Amino acid sequence: MSDDSKRNAPSALGRRSVLIGLAALGGIAAVDVGGFLYAGGWLTPGRLTPPRFTDRFEQVFGKHDGFRRNHAKGLSASGYFTSNGAGAEISKAVVFRPGQFPVEGRFSLSGGVPDVADANATVRGLGLLFTLPNGEQWRTAMVNIPVFLDNTPEGFFERILASKTDPDTGRPDPEKMAAFLARHPETAAAMEIIGQQPRSSGFDNSTFHGLNAFRFTDSAGAIRPVRWMVVPEQPFVPADPVPPPGRDYLFDALIRTVANTPLHWRLILTIGQPGDPTNDATAPWPPHRHSIDAGRVTIDSVQTEEQGNARDINFDPLILPDGIARSDDPLLSARSAVYARSFLRRSSEPKQPSEVNVERVLDER
Ligand code: HEM
Known about the structure:
Elements: H1 3-24, H2 27-30, E1 38-39, E2 42-43, H3 50-61, E3 73-83, E4 99-109, E5 124-131, E6 137-143, H4 153-162, E7 165-166, E8 171-172, H5 174-183, H6 185-196, E9 208-209, E10 214-217, E11 223-232, H7 249-260, E12 263-271, E13 291-303, E14 324-326, H8 330-347, H9 358-363
Antiparallel strand pairs: 1-2, 3-4, 3-13, 4-5, 5-6, 7-8, 9-11, 10-11, 10-14, 11-12, 12-13
The protein binds protoporphyrin IX containing FE (HEM).
Protoporphyrin IX containing FE (HEM) binds at residues 32-34, 53, 68-71, 74, 106, 108, 125, 127, 141-143, 148, 153, 156, 210-212, 281, 314-315, 331, 334-335, 338-339, 342-343, 346.
């Protein structure tokens, strides 16, 4: 710890020890948060680059050929989106016209270890790709936490190293996390918000948040800042503090549920007001902002990851239909660049079978 950090430590010690405890739960420590220096959307030469960021995931989680460098453990899914037309009020995107559009998806756990044991605290992800009749696509990758942990790519780059598991203790080094949090109050504040949100029992009753702000353009050319989330129609059940046995209990439950019944989420678009931050994913917008229920996402099938399904999709958050555009959030360019690098590596490597296997779970019933 630096001398400066030591001087800062006493005043915030109580709060920080809570935060370190949260980080030690693992999921929060593993969530994507990024650290890049950007100028006009381009990486500054000689500074943080997509390959360096991708190397950092390998340094922290190990190198696992053929797998995503983050959100490595996953399950492919498919279904459709039924748009009720209400989103057309704020965006001319075809996806918001009334109709039904095919969706490919992927449920995941954060972190770069493809066979990591499921845990309630680990951040859950949902990637969705909407295919639109005019040939456009809308891709989004969302997580089950209400804010992101960092507001710059640099933060993520630094933090995943600070939260790396110490092989001697099996936990992150509390001193390293404390030093990181002393330099990053935005992460400490985000952890507090996340810690107040009760965890749900499974993927099926999780709310997934897009977190980054985007700019929606309506048919008259008006532009509004928007954040989105998908809210489950399945009722909330709190996570059991003593989770069921099984390394893959979250995924196994999802597979069994989808075999019996389709799952549904409402797509909620929240409109920002002047002054609401669009460049800081750690900062929530004030509650009760005007929201639009744009329709229903249905997942009616899940598949073991393999060639041709969502295993081979890059859920790049900047693949957007006309009517949705990037905001000034610096995470977006970083995400797009690093996902591409991760995709490039994993698609040219030999593939091992994925940990989560639909047939195995259904055969056990
Ligand atoms: C600078 C910030 C970020 C970096 C560097 C980063 C990095 C990554 C990487 C390397 C992957 C694997 C990509 C692939 O191989 O296809 C990934 C996947 C993912 N990330 Fe991020 N991420 C960032 C921010 C975020 C944010 C803000 C969210 C949520 C809003 C998020 C949610 C996800 C999800 C859900 C996946 C899995 C998608 C899938 O199933 O393919 N990430 N991230």
